[in-house]
Structure formats: structure tokens, C-alpha cells
Amino acid sequence: MASTTCADAARPAASLWQTAVAVALRKRPDADAGDAPQLRPSLRALDLVLIGVGSSVGSGIFVIVGVAVQPTGPAVCMSFVMAAVSSIFSALCYAELAARIPISGSVYLYAYVAFGELLAVLLGVNLMIGYHVGAALGTLSCATYFHETLRSELGPDAWLPPVKIIAVVLLVLLTVTLCVGVEKGLRKANGALVSTKVAIVVVIIAAGATKMQASNLAPFAPFGWMPVASMSTTCCFSYIGFGTVANAAEECINPRRDLPIGITVSLLVCAALYVAFALVLCGIIPFQEMDLDAPVVKAFGPGYANIPWVAVLVDWGAIIGIFTTLLTGLYSQARIYLAMARDGLVFKCLSSVSPRFGTPARAQVLCGVIVGALVVCLPIEKLVRFLNLGVLASYTVVCAGVLALRAEHPGASASWSMALTTVSTAAFALLDYAATHSWLRGSTAFGGLAYATALVAIGACWIPFFRQSYSTPSSFACPCCPFLPLLGITLNGYLLAHCYWEAWVLFAATTVLIIAFYAFRVWRMRRVGPSAA
Fold first, then answer.
1. Which residues touch 197 (CB under 8 Å, ≥6 apart)?
2. What is the pLDDT at residue 386?
3. Is the pLDDT of residue 318 over 60?
């Protein structure tokens, strides 16, 4: 009798656990939007390239060289090359999944199809937090640039509204532009602004090239190549536009052909601009004398190139650059909410598509409201350390998704991808700890052991992938599978190891909250089964 009672008591617990696992691991059954309202296709390959460039090249191109050049010297241009090479692995994986699953949702959708609902929600929520905070920072930065530029042109006595008021007006303008349609709003506005921004950068490069001095480029790597490789982790975030391109999949006229073109070409264009810009600046001014905050203005000032009109171009180029990153960033955010709403994971009303404009207007307005609230109510400048981890996690999942969807044994591939990510991040964190602590830096034995352990651990995680066979999709396929996706996961582990601890705390907190949400979800579904969600 006692044993029967124990068995009866154990059955609900077992049933609860089985339901939880079934819900968390269930995958999206297909790669279309089902009966949900569809977005209106109107984008071609050139539009996607402009979206990618608009997302990547913001005001940072006028600032990042001044920061990155200090520990690297003129070899900073090689940091941008290394960053582009490491980013291309993730970009090629993005291109494959975007062509294979050509509907809105980007990395959230890829995770749902490849790994299941729980990872998709974890990734989607963390990515959206990073996107919203980044958009709030960008809005405030754009408003500040605009305020200061008008102040310098109109004089110190001219009345101007406060920066936060300008930021709110800017958000309203962006939201309305995106709500009125891709054809009338995003395509025309982004095309014109990105073309203007690229033209400004090219003019500055051309003008500066005439003032370069070869002596400023020697020695090319004064501090060796280790700082150059380390700085490539910072430069990687100059190439984040291909995620936005992937979100345009459903509005693409020929997604299987044009998405891979848009993703890869936009990355190559951005790499060419950043490398040329860095090389020209280092050729104009000795890197030791470059200003951290305004390297372009100083380089083109009276003491060096002496081309004063470049300062005006920098101001307006920064404003246009931030505006385009905001335009494409908010566009991308709304499509992720749309995909999550279609799957019933956020409010269903966000899955609606405007019959007049063919855009997810409700989701777009929600994005504007959230970003506006962050701008007005929170000290956004202090939240910058929470960025980047969500983006890097998305790159890792995309690389792993290619392996899982192609592999002969998807479950084993998913498990080993998680192991490789964990091991790579921990190994590179250990090596970084050893390199930055003086009591370990002088120990040759510990250093050798740390490097050997890291290489053996990462290599051990690679081996199982080469024991499987991989199919090739009929659409665009990432070359050299599984080698390139594995390189992407490993390099992303290196970048994850360099994220701020605050970002990891936020990631852990959101993970706990999402697991709590799942506990409630499973409790609600337990009697009707996982298919009712």
C-alpha cells in the first residue's frame, strides 16, 4: 500500500517534468509563417546591402580608430581585417539560415527551428534587451550630436530644446517612417541616408589620402601583434549589420538569392571602409598624438592635414550614421516581436500586419515606446556594459544552428555545440586571467599548461563533429561545413570571454526569469498537454 502511494505521488512530478522538457525542447514544425498575416515583399539585393551598411557604419567610424589605435599603432587596420575575417564565419552561417528559413524572426526563429523553444526565448529576450538599450544609447547620442551641431552653427545664445526632447521627437520620426511601409519608408529613407553617409566617409578618405606621410606608419606594429589581435574583439562590433539583413527575409522579393548577397557584400563594404579610414588617419597623424574622442577633427586640423571643412562633414556624418543605425535597428526589433507573437510567446496582438502599409505597425510602435521610456527614465549611459553578450550569443547559436540542421545526428550536434561554446569561453577567460595577473604572467610553466589545456579541451570538442556526415541545403550553403561554423563558435567563445561581468549578471537574471515563466507555463499546460500552448 505504501509503495502504491509513493508511486502515485511520483507520477505527477514525473508528468510535470516530462511536460516541461517537451515544451522547452519542442521545435518549430515548419519554416513558414503559417496562417499569420504576411509582410509585403519589396526589397532587392541592393536594398539589403544598404540595410547592412546602414546598421554597421554609424558614428563609431569617426571615434573607434582613436580608441583602438592606442594599444596597436598603425596596425589597427589589421585589427579591423582580423575582425572582418572572424565575422565572416558567422555571416556565412547567417546567410545559409536566412536563405533556408526566409521569414521574419532572424536568430530567434533559427534557434526555435534548430534547438527548441526554451533556447529561442532565452536568446530572443536577451537579444531584445541589448537591442533596446543600444537603440536608447544611439537615440541619445544622435540627439546630442544634433544639439551640439546646431549650437555651433546658430551660436551659444540660440534657444534649443533639451537633448531628451530632441531624442523623443527623433524616435517618433523613426517610428512613423517605419510604420508607413518598407517601400515608402525604410527603403527610400535608408537608401538616401546610407548613400550620403558612405559618400561622406569616402570623401574624407580621399581628402586624407593626399596628406598621408609614410613615416607615420612606421613602425607598423610598435607593441607587437598580440594587442592587435586583442583589439580585434572590440572591432568585431563594427560588423553587426548582417543580423539586421537576416530580419528582412520575409520582405525580400527573392530571399534565397538576395539574402546571402546582402549579408556578405555589406560585411565586405564595411570592412573596406573601416580599414581604409583607419589607414588614412594613421598616415596623417602619429598614433601617439591622435585624440581619443575626436581623432578625425584633430587629424584634419591646422597642425596636420589642415582641411577644416572635414570637421563639418564629421558632425553631419555622425548624425546621419547614427540615424541609419537606429532606423535599421528599430526595423529589426519589430520583426523579432512579430515572430515571437506569431508563435504565441508574446502578446498575440503584436502579430498583426497593417493591411494598408504591410508592416507590423503595433510591434513597431511598441519598440518606439520601450526605447523612449529608456531614454527618458533611465541613466542609459551606465547601461553600456550590458551590451554585446546577446549579440555574441546570437552569432554562436547561428553557427551551431547550421551544424544542427545539417548534421546526421542533430541532437548530438546541439549538445557538442553547447559544450564547445562553454569550453571555449572558459578556456579563453582562463588565458585572459593568466595574461592580466602579474603573479601568473611571469610563470612560464603555468602559461604553457594553460595554453595546452585550452587547446586540448577545444580540440576535444571539435572531434565529434568530424565523425558525422552533413547534408547540403538546396539554397545557399555555408562552405567548408563543419569547419567554418566551428571556427565561428570558437571565435565567439573568445569574444564572450571578454564581455563585462555586468552583461553576464543580466544574462543570468533573465535566464532565471524565463525559467520561472516556463514553470508557470508548464503548470498551466500540465493537464492539456504541451500541444495546447
1. 54, 57, 317, 320, 321, 324
2. 67
3. yes
pLDDT bucket at 110, cuts 50 / 70 / 90 = very high
Residue 139 and residue 312 in contact, taking contact as beta carbons nearer than 8 Å: no
Output DSSP code: residue 249.
G
> How far, rounded to the nearest angstrom, does the alpha carbon of residue 122 sit from its chain's CA centroid?
15
Query: Distance (Å, rounded) from C-alpha 331 to C-alpha 106?
Result: 12
**What is the DSSP code string of 452-506?**
HHHHHHHHHHHGGGGGS-B---SS---SSTTHHHHHHHHHHHHHHTTS-HHHHHH
Q: What is the pTM of this model?
A: 0.85
pLDDT, tens digit (0-9, with 9 covering 90-100), for 201-221 = 999 999 999 999 989 998 998
- What is the number of other CB atoms lying within 10 angstroms of the CB of residue 379? 7
> What's residue 1's pLDDT?
45
CA dist 44 and 33 (Å) reads 20
Half-sphere exposure of 306 (CA within 13 A, CB side): 3
Q: Do 231 and 71 touch, CB atoms closer than 8 A?
A: yes
Query: Which cell is 354 given?
Result: 497593417
Q: Is 407 helix (H, G, I), strand (E, B) or coil?
A: strand
Which bin fits 481, alpha (ψ -120 to 50), beta or left (φ > 0)? beta
Give the angle subtended at the CA of 91 by the CAs of 468 and 45, to the nearest 5°: 125
**Greater confidence, 53 or 437?**
53
C-alpha cell at 426: 572558459
> 520-530: per-residue pLDDT in tens?
777 776 655 54
> 190, 327 in Cβ contact below 8 A?
yes
Cβ partners under 8 Å of residue 69, min gap 6: 76, 278, 281, 282, 287, 290, 295
Mean pLDDT over residues 297-304, rounded? Answer: 84
Residue 389, SS3 per DSSP: helix
Percent of the chain, pLDDT > 70?
87
Interatomic CA distance for residues 267 and 248, integer angstroms:
16
How far, in Å, CA of 38 to CA of 34, rounded?
9
